[in-house]
Design brief:
Elements lengths: L1 E5 L5 H5 L2 H6 L11 H7 L3 E5 L16 E5 L2 E6 L5 E7 L6
Antiparallel strand pairs: 1-2, 1-3, 4-5
Length: about 100
């Protein structure tokens, strides 16, 4: 299971449980935790959960969202000319993608 914070509005109480993760996120450097809700509201943040193996974005697909990985791991990969999956990058909790 993968849980990410995509910037679309969600209730304060749901987001507060993720404040410890946001504290570790570079995107929230120099922002006091008491200001997180204000920042998240401005960004229209929400929490979304995806099943294991989900494809969040396909190659060439435009996206306007930024995410913070809250739980689980996220892998960025491509396929080589033989159709083999090649891992490009792995994201851990608190990282921006």
């Amino acid at each position: 299971m993968l849980t990410v914070c995509i910037f679309i509005r969600k209730s304060r109480s749901i987001m507060e449980q993720y404040y410890p993760i946001l504290r570790k996120c570079g995107m929230f450097n120099n922002i006091q935790p008491r200001k997180y809700q204000e920042v998240l509201s401005c960004l229209n943040a929400s929490v979304r959960t995806y099943p294991r193996g989900s494809h969040l974005v396909e190659l060439g697909e435009p996206t306007r969202n930024t995410g913070v990985l809250l739980e689980g791991t996220l892998e960025e990969f491509l396929y080589d000319e033989n159709g083999n999956q090649v891992s490009i990058c792995r994201f851990a909790s608190g990282e921006v993608f």
